[in-house]
Amino acid sequence: xxxxxxxxxxxxxxxxxxxxxxxxxxxxxxxxxxxxxxxxxxxxxxxxxxxxxxxxxxxxxxxxxxxxxxxxxxxxxxxxxxxxxxxxxxxxxxxxxxxxxxxxxxxxxxxxxxxxxxxxxxxxxxxxxxxxxxxxxxxxxxxxxxxxxxxxxxxxxxxxxxxxxxxxxxxxxxxxxxxx
Amino acid sequence: xxxxxxxxxxxxxxxxxxxxxxxxxxxxxxxxxxxxxxxxxxxxxxxxxxxxxxxxxxxxxxxxxxxxxxxxxxxxxxxxxxxxxxxxxxxxxxxxxxxxxxxxxxxxxxxxxxxxxxxxxxxxxxxxxxxxxxxxxxxxxxxxxxxxxxxxxxxxxxxxxxxxxxxxxxxxxxxxxxxx
Amino acid sequence: xxxxxxxxxxxxxxxxxxxxxxxxxxxxxxxxxxxxxxxxxxxxxxxxxxxxxxxxxxxxxxxxxxxxxxxxxxxxxxxxxxxxxxxxxxxxxxxxxxxxxxxxxxxxxxxxxxxxxxxxxxxxxxxxxxxxxxxxxxxxxxxxxxxxxxxxxxxxxxxxxxxxxxxxxxxxxxxxxxxx
Amino acid sequence: xxxxxxxxxxxxxxxxxxxxxxxxxxxxxxxxxxxxxxxxxxxxxxxxxxxxxxxxxxxxxxxxxxxxxxxxxxxxxxxxxxxxxxxxxxxxxxxxxxxxxxxxxxxxxxxxxxxxxxxxxxxxxxxxxxxxxxxxxxxxxxxxxxxxxxxxxxxxxxxxxxxxxxxxxxxxxxxxxxxx
Lengths: 180, 180, 180, 180
Known about the structure:
Four copies of one chain form a homotetramer. Helices cover about 40% and strands about 20% of the residues of chain A. In chain A, strands 1, 2, 3, 4, 5 and 6 form a six-stranded parallel sheet that branches. In chain A, strands 7-8 form a two-stranded antiparallel ribbon. Chain A has one domain (about 10-180): 3-Layer(aba) Sandwich (Rossmann fold). The longest helix of chain A is centred in the first third of the chain and has 15 residues, at about 20-35. Chain A has about 180 residues and is of the alpha/beta class. Chain A is globular.
């Protein structure tokens, strides 16, 4: 890679345990390793249980458990967001996490790459569009390429990806993001 | 009104206490009363503190405190959503509440009317667009007219509205919703 | 149907000749006929060739060929929009047609039902979201149910639909629109 | 500037003559000149009058007048899009121009910066969101910062900008784009 890469944070965009999002995160981690790029997970399953009352608004930045998590965002210049589709958009907890980040937001000027997942046919198309609007609002540059893993259950082989096109799209997206 | 109206639920779309959203909800309630239409509040400040771990996914429908709140959605055929703009969209807690509704979702076939609020100039334009996508996904009919109360702080007179255009737009929206 | 239905206009949302959009329009027309509801086509293939210079802005309402077409919009209270996906959204000519409608716009207070078509997997999801934003801006009520006919080529049997799920979704959408 | 800049093309996103969009384009051109960066206009007022029938679909790439215009897109790696709000989104002619670009699209991998303009309060917020979706679909990287020039008529001083905040936002956006 021509561009020096620091630690990349892979955000698992749901707090549902054992989610397929984690598997997709693993595939991304492996692709990054094949480029000798370090990465770490930030799993929304680790959010404080009472985040909606202990870390928003006037309490922003005052929840130590959340601050430890947010610190991963501060250490990285680049993020992958693994985004399962819930109710036609991304999970509410992902936006709660964004709303709980300290002010002024620590993401401005950083870079994000989005991957959508769905059981149905959309692959999170609207979810990724909504999230792009929000990240752009926050001053985060968003990679144009956004793989949409529709019909995810039909395209798994155990915990690995059993679809060559999806594999190619993810590989190209990771390459593009390292050069972004 | 030609259309018989049941109880309308006014959803205060944030869990921030003392929010201006509550005042806007009051203005809507008064407009409904002027048409002899009953309404009740559903304030997201009343969400369970641990909603993100106690009421989502496999625990959907199993949190009694949330069920009491969700019951208001079941009693009504029509909803106002009062939506403050946070980070370029609606508050994450509003989507968490939607994600926590029992499955199959109880909103399909019902009707919603959206009002945006912002300190800045957008009035929640993107927030209302995102929320419309989600409500449409859930089979909820969304009124086309969506008042956007931009620069809200400059347009208040105490806890009342000090802007004639905004007052007219809200009045027209309430009228349109009663006929929707 | 409980609701008295006037003539419904089916807008073929592209000016490409022999488009699959026309076939989808025919399926909708047949479904309407099964309910004894009259409908007519408005095919964007009939737009004036020089619409972008003869019918926009200060020339709005002054192009007789376009006025004849627009008149169909005036005669109807309800519209279907058949929307093929081009470049991640709906065809530019559809928006040109909307931009060329006389001012004040004749669609306010009317009702629309949207159907997306794509060769790929999205089924026009973003196209229909963008079009919903525009129609809501114009005061047009948009039915929540929006069938997305993804992978259209694989789901045809000649000029008819060879996919039972799609057939069911279209049937339900037409039913819902007649009651909207 | 650390990044070597080639010619930047400023797309005037409407074919309306004497549009304020042209003035905004001029302000951007001057800001680029202050950085010794060359730029050229691509004015949609120069589109072929019959573009909707002579340059789309099977005729893509076969209209010489359009090809001359498209060539400007090929010469540049970076584009500004000046986008007036029409009917709640961007002008239909802008999408027609995008739909008429040769296939495979010549924009993939290039970079765009968007500026919205409106008479009303939105500043083209939804227009820029829709256009971002389309550009991302085409593989164009879109700068997060997008100045929204709301209430444009009230913020002009003749043909120049009479609003210090807007001037600052445009200056920052141009700087950010040169480093993008």
